[in-house]
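Hey, I'm writing a tutorial for new members on how sequence and structure tokens pair up, and I'd like a real worked example in the thread rather than a made-up one. If someone can provide the structure for the chain below, I'll link this post from the tutorial.
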Amino acid sequence: MKNIIITTILFLFSCSSGNLKDDYIKLKSKDIIIPNYKSVILNGKDTLFPKILDTKLKLVIFCDSTKCNSCAIDDLYGWKEVISNTKDFKDLSYYFIFNCKSNEIQKVDSIIHTTFFNYPIIFDHLGEFSRMNKHIPKNDLFHTFLLEHSNVIMIGNPRMNIKTMDLFKKTLIKYSKICNNQ
């Protein structure tokens, strides 16, 4: 029985690994365009787009209309530890981009405005990010990625496991040295 379960898991993974590879290639195939957002939500209030987001390295955390936005908003507080552990990287900013279905705009807007998260949240109610980046796969595994300017240099959520977090930190160290030498 144990062998059947392991074989089934391996079979399912091997069938999907081709899709994962295709999605990886698709995401890395083009630059990521971040729309010229004028404002963000910070500590529950609308504010002008802050200069702190204008950095060479950007970790994009994208929640599209297929995901439970209120769940993702609740999950924001889990990012505090990652942000705290990377605060010494001055060339790094975090882009929390939320897009939702048109019939949920008011609900999601209300939830974001009652969330006192002390890092800017971009509420992309017009879906500009998705429209400008059609090459981003639908799979949530590809909705967190690190950019150098507009180039994807790492894909994965550092909160998912220790190995991804270690890779994230190593990548930050590598690219911070490159940024400082320019």
